[in-house]
Amino acid sequence: MAQKLIKRIVKLVVNSPNESSKISETFALLYDTDPNLSQSLIYSIENLIYEKNDIAAAKLLFLHTTSTLASKDSKQCLDFVYSCDPLAIGQDSLKLVFELHYKEEHYLASLLILDGVSQEHWVNERRTEIADLIKDKDLSKVDIIYQNLANLLLLKRSKISGQGPPNVKKTKFFSSLLQTPIVAWEYRNQLGRMIRRDLDVKYQKSILGWAWGIIEPLALTVTFLFLFDILSTTTSRYMPLNIMIGIIIWSGFGHILLRGTKSLESNTVVLQRVNLPRQIFLLNIAGTSIVTVSLNILAIIPLLIYYQITPTWKLILFPASLILVAAYGVSVSLFTSTIQTKWRDVSHLVSVAVRIGFYFTPVFFTLEMLINGRIPPEFLTAYLIINPIAIYLTLARSAFTNESIDIGQEYFWISLLHLILLYTFSAYWFSKNEDKAVKYL
Fold first, then answer.
1. pLDDT digit string (tens) for 343-382?
2. Which of 158, 87, 83, 60 is nearest to 116 (CA)?
3. 20-27: long-range pairs with CB below 8 Å, 24+
4. Domain presence at residue 311
5. What residues make up the domain containing 142?
6. In a domain, 166, yes or no
7. In this structure, how many other beta carbons lie within 10 angstroms of the beta carbon of residue 296?
8. pTM, to two decimals
């Protein structure tokens, strides 16, 4: 209902800007339907500016939004003002912002906002009046915060004054591909702190603590090995080791997919209050999974000793395969996370897909068993092309067992091409739809 009312309001400000009473009535109905309307209206205003190139309609929408919120929720109103694009703030809106700051006794911010208002007869009178009030008032932290916000707002308005209409905002294809790597590099320190926080939260108030990172894959390996001995006649020497590596890596991959799909939804409060790149939450999940898998893999050390396996240069295949698996999970999540904000069924579909994929990917069996099984060669080729995780798992196992990989090199290149195409599509999709996705939070 709220989304329908917002569309109705946008249509009115574009096509019938003089019908102020009808716009105000619709706004009142919208607020009764959904009091937390500011985020969706910010998106609508930016859409009018950058997609429709209609600044007049954007200013009118901003004015009516400010007028409605000022009388009902002053805090949300100020959050809306300082989160919105300065291009939408006209003189009438500035007067409303001034009146609201004055009413809330934010006198420092009021003085600054007056500097942006046209020099009318009442401006100097109010400035003198506020100067007298400040003398007898102890300024609080809130006053200083709003003073800084008001100063930043006026600075932005001064930079855009005199400029022509903005260029239509378009998502550039090649820049969208670089967004996620750039965020990973520029926010690397913050990502490190977020990953440490997640790991501390995961193992806090636990008697065994980080030891659970080894106990969990070990218990699952014993379970599947027992079932495997009952159901299979294979004589593979390293079967326990292969199963353990498969479970550890698939658990990390599933963690990225499941939590990555809900990364925007789970951080709604942060996204509405803090200006952060949306990819950072997904990168945090991927980083946490990589660290967790690296910890879990320590559980295979006793098996390496038991089988008397000596590490070789192939050991570098493990971090390479782990990064490829994480990149695949991030690529899928870039697509699913934006859809999840509108249709919450997506997370359930991903959960089912992870469970089905566990049995169709060589997790508790090996790719060699699949090749030597009953699958015809033409179906095996299609399987390897569609499911590159099978190849990445085989690389990780080969890193420790030193066993040769009995598939052609062309499949490795095809799996990389699969990953590149998936990331290209998902990164462009995310860049184009992330703002639209946030409005559904």
1. 888 999 999 999 999 888 988 788 887 777 667 777 888 8
2. 158
3. 20/64, 23/60, 23/64, 24/64, 24/67, 24/68, 27/64, 27/65, 27/67, 27/68
4. yes
5. 2-160
6. no
7. 23
8. 0.64
